[in-house]
Amino acid sequence: MIRITDSIAIEESELDMEFVRASGPGGQNVNKVATVVQLRFDVRHSAALTEDVRERLVTLAGRRMTGDGVLVITARRHRTQRANREDAIERLVKLIRRAARKPKPRKITTPTKASVEQRLEQKRQRAKIKRRRQKPKNDTD
Q1: pLDDT single digits (tens) 53-94
Q2: CATH number for region 2-100
Q3: What residues are paired with 3 via a beta bridge?
């Protein structure tokens, strides 16, 4: 059982881990040992997540989410399987914790009088600069 928040805990059986050979430098070790971890977590069918957490998680995951609603996290920072496995689980926990936090509702505010005046003054200055760039109008036609 992986505890994420007080109300969210995921069973380890919900996680599917696959170990893949790493690419890049590493000598003979890279050809022998599958150290890269691909962690898969089915967000759409997980009983541990509430609907609002699930929606925020899908949004936060972005490209890491497949069309079937499966979150894929690839961990390859470390040279050992164990360290990469722990890294992948840690990243999943952080992502779900972020999704579990409800965003603050945005307070609608109006701009101050000074900021409105400042913006209009900047627009006037910019317009003046652009007017100077124009060809002079010939009034003696």
Answers
A1: 888 888 888 888 888 878 888 888 887 788 888 888 888 888
A2: 3.30.160.20
A3: 9
